[in-house]
TrEMBL record:
It comes from the Bacteria. Keywords: Signal. Belongs to the UPF0065 (bug) family. Transmembrane segments: none annotated. Residues 1-26 form the signal peptide. This is Tripartite tricarboxylate transporter substrate binding protein. InterPro entries: BUG, Bug_dom1, TAT_signal. It comes from Xanthobacter tagetidis.
């Protein structure tokens, strides 16, 4: 049995060695399989990018990275599950705008973005294309605004679901232009863009990969790009801001997160590996297919970016009376 002096000595030794153990654990990471939760169904942009990042991290770090799809409530179901996980780096979240940005207004979101997540790495922040059916009379953003003001809700906007990025972009458009449009939500980008192409719905803020094939075929018209500056991938299209809506900006983003309290050394290592991946020609080509270019940040800069983005969209949704179920 230890006497009091021996026990005290061991306790002090443990306290002194504890800070030294953390870097060693971080240096050995990962020592077991890592799960990357994608809070959307398979096949979408977040799923594709999450799988590419998981595959590359598996090669770079020499450990299995498994993708787990947990869709529901515009991405908040999967995000909430990760927020409750141990902050050891073995359960990560591949999120997009819809999974975290509107979360303060989501009844299903039992988490606080700032308090319960460790931002790890931003991968990309792609813009959307404001497209209308080819037969729609408006050929510019200003003409679209004029028609929308002439008769409220005569102009309809499709989205991939309430609270999705395509919906938030339309809500911001209404707020900036003083118009009232008819929101038509769908269960995914595919059926939404199909109805814009067929003329069932007037317009949509669509991901470039979904819209461009129809633009090239002449069935859709691009009125603007939602980034603050012209996209290097679509330099011929004006921004929505320069086309008639000052200060308009609505970009999506894809990024990797962990639960709050992750070891800073593990966060830095994952950030470094993701940035290295994004610099490869293969990944640049994959992102270009998604209408995006690599957009890398340090964990601290990414945290600031997420804070500003979530605040922006949450305020907009509250003002518009939008609540996710």
């Amino acid at each position: 049995m230890l006497n009091r002096r021996s026990a005290l000595a061991l306790a002090c030794a443990g306290a002194l060695l504890a800070p030294l153990a953390a870097p060693a654990a971080a240096a050995d990471y990962p020592t077991q399989a890592v799960t990357v939760v994608v809070p959307f169904a398979p096949g979408g942009g977040t799923d594709l990018l999450g799988r590419l990042i998981a595959q590359d991290l598996q090669k770079r770090l020499g450990q299995t990275f498994v993708v787990e799809n947990r869709p529901g409530a515009a991405g908040t179901t999967g995000a909430a599950a990760v927020s409750r996980s141990a902050p050891d780096g073995y359960r990560l979240l591949m999120a997009a705008t819809g999974a975290l940005a509107p979360s303060p207004t989501a009844a299903s979101a039992s988490y606080d973005v700032k308090a319960q997540f460790s931002p790890v790495a931003l991968a990309a922040a792609p813009p959307y294309l404001l497209v209308v059916n080819a037969d729609f009379p408006a050929n510019s953003v200003k003409e679209l605004i004029a028609l929308a003001k002439e008769k409220p809700e005569s102009v309809s906007f499709a989205s991939s679901g309430t609270g999705a990025a395509s919906h938030l972009a339309a809500v911001l458009f209404e707020a900036k232009t003083g118009t009232k449009v008819l929101h038509v939500p769908y269960k995914g980008v595919g059926p939404a863009i199909t109805d814009v192409v067929s003329g069932q719905v007037t317009a949509m803020f669509a991901p470039p990969p979904a819209a461009l094939p129809h633009v090239k075929s002449g069935r859709l018209k691009v009125l603007g790009v939602t980034s603050a500056a012209r996209s290097e991938l679509f330099p011929d299209y004006p921004t929505v801001a320069e086309a008639g809506v000052p200060d308009y900006e609505a970009v999506g983003w894809f990024g990797l997160f962990g639960p709050a309290g992750m070891d800073a050394a593990i966060v830095e290592r994952l950030n470094k590996e993701v940035i290295a991946l994004l610099g490869t020609p293969e990944m640049k080509a994959q992102l270009a297919n998604m209408g995006a270019v690599p957009n890398t940040m340090s964990p601290a800069a990414f945290a600031t970016f997420i804070d500003e983005d979530t605040t922006k969209w949450a305020q907009l949704m509250r003002a518009a009376g939008i609540e996710l179920k």
